[in-house]
Amino acid sequence: MPCPDCSSPNTQRLAHYWESLPAESPLKDRYAPPPIARARTLAILGIIGAGIWVLTTGAVLWGLAIAIGGLLWGALTMASVTASQAAYGQWETQQLCLSCTHRFQP
Ligand SMILES: [Zn+2]
């Protein structure tokens, strides 16, 4: 697959190129994959559970506030996990031009 920028045929899968770089290479950071966010499901469920428990003790507003906070945090976490997985998928399929360092999707 030739580079769309300089039409050089000297291109490589970015993921393969990055894996083949020695650890001390300064390019190792530059071409590193985007980090994948992890869902802290247990912590989120714990907060929601704590909110429900507070609810049952009679502090209804506090319980609701804590449970809703847990739900919101869960929704935000899921959104960032999905976004980071999409970014990682894109990195994985990218091609790197070894002549002009242009990155592109094949
Ligand atoms: Zn190029």
Major β-sheet strand ordering: 1-2-3
Q: Into which percentage range does the β-strand content fall?
A: 5-15%
Ligands present: zinc ion
Contiguous low-pLDDT stretches (5 residues minimum) are none
**Spatial extent as radius of gyration:** 22 Å
Please identify the structural class as seen in this structure. mainly alpha
Give the termini distance in whole angstroms. 7 Å
What number of domains?
1
The sequence of SSEs as H and E is: EHHHHEE
Helix content: 55-70%
Number of helices: 4
User: How many beta strands in the DSSP annotation?
Assistant: 3
Main sheet makeup = 3 strands, antiparallel
Mean pLDDT: 95
Task: Describe the protein in words.
With 106 residues, this protein is mostly helical. It has four helices and three strands. It has helices spanning 14-20, 27-30, 41-56, 60-93; strands spanning 11-13, 95-97, 103-104. It has a three-stranded antiparallel sheet. Helix 3 (41-56) packs antiparallel against helix 4. The longest helix is centred in the last third of the chain and has 34 residues, at 60-93. The mean pLDDT is 95.
Core attributes:
mainly alpha; binds zinc ion; 4 helices; about 60% helix; 3 strands; rod-shaped; about 110 residues; three-stranded antiparallel sheet
At a glance:
With 106 residues, this protein is mostly helical.
What are the SSEs and their pairings?
Layout: E1 11-13, H1 14-20, H2 27-30, H3 41-56, H4 60-93, E2 95-97, E3 103-104
Antiparallel strand pairs: 1-2, 2-3
The protein binds zinc ion.
